[in-house]
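Dear colleague,

As promised, here are the two records you asked about, laid out in our usual form so they can be pasted straight into your sheet.

NAME FIELD: protein one
SEQUENCE, THEN STRUCTURE:
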Amino acid sequence: MARKSKKPAAPAWQPDDATPRDRHRLAGLEPDNLLAFMALLGLLRALEHARPDWRPRAFWDVETQPWRPVLTLAQPATEAEVARAAKEGVEKSCAHHAATGEAKDLKFSSEEFLGLRNAAATEGRAVLDALCCPSALRDDRTLWPTPFAFMFGQGHQHFLERFRNTPAQGAKMGCVARALFIPWQRQDNADGFRWDPAEDRRYALRAINPSGDKITTELGANVLAAISLPLFPVYAVRRGGQMRVLAPMNRFGANGRIEFTWPLWTRAASLRTIRALLQHPELAADHPNPANIPHSAVVLRAQRISVGKYFNVTPAAPPA
């Protein structure tokens, strides 16, 4: 019997490197995914570092299904050129993550933190200011960490170690391009930050015990999201008789959980403008009205949840 010939494998997807455009629809970045939202901000930050003359802006296209962000540029560029520039910007930005020292986890004393901050340059201080506030101490005399820290050594998952290493090791043009321009496949065997709701592996959501499953992620999105963290400096708030920390787009929900709230804006905006939007007081309301936020079509909110010994985040939805 003659053997059936195998079909040749489909060529791996590659970003377009032939057609420069001044607008790019970012098909990989879903609006209800915290990791994707942070990756969008990280992309703008990377491009501002690497190609400031492009004057990168972004808006959400809510006229076309599915909703996705659109990147606008003052100078046309191909998908491949955007990805290469983003890679360069990540490499420049993540060099400042070294200001965190050698600790693996966010468990600084006030003295340790201030020592690192005093030794850091301006960009390094911005990194540290997004991680802790020296006036917000826990009972064990360590500083409360940013609400964006979802791991503290559980299962050998170390936030600061990943924060230093993942963007530096994972800034490859191909993985950045895949995260931006095509729907996520989550096939990368790499360290992420648990900012993707798909990493919620509760037994209740699965037909079988998932504990032995291999965890894979979208590496390019984690790389971009990591360099967005300095855009969210923490500040001290009083809660329950002690000082805690929040960051822009954070609040404590009625159930005590930390929540992340962001608008979908419909006019091209710079990173500076977006940062201002994320500090709009309407985002802290129980029922935020997008009409009160400039050029916003909808407001989405996600919750940080505790799943066993791990933190995860829910998909975002309009607050009920």
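NAME FIELD: protein two
SEQUENCE, THEN STRUCTURE:
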Amino acid sequence: MEHGLHNNVLCSQQFNEFKESFSNYWSICGYWYEQRNITKTKFQSFPLSDGFRKGDVIIIWRANENNIKLGDTLVFQGNRAQPIIHRVVKIWEQDGQKHYQTKGDHNSASINGQNSEEDITINRIYGKAIAKVPYLGWVKILFVEILALFGIIIER
């Protein structure tokens, strides 16, 4: 289970302690999904429903309007330089084009504003996550941190 705290926060709520389990995650964050007719059982059937952690390498595959489904995890361009990787929570069609809304599993809501995740079109999508390799990313993370000890900074 990988729906624990990040900096002692989960879905905008602060915790000193949190027993990591899907049931505990759902008791804190599930209300948002349930308001959108995504039940606990449905969420658990989504790909990567157990989330991911720092250090996991996410395998990305091409995405198109025909292979993106509710619950998929998309990598898309948001309003910052770094892409966002969040879960599809709504799909609709408008003017012959599919639109997607996403939400980070640990966020209290979807991000809004310019280039938000409330209305994403295919031109902003790089791909969708199809698998994860736990811990492999720590090789790069540790390498970058060791270099930083010597004053060598690698921009992300």
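A couple of things worth noting about protein two: Residues 112 and 118 are 6 Å apart (CA to CA). The first helix runs from residue 22 to 34.

Best,
R.
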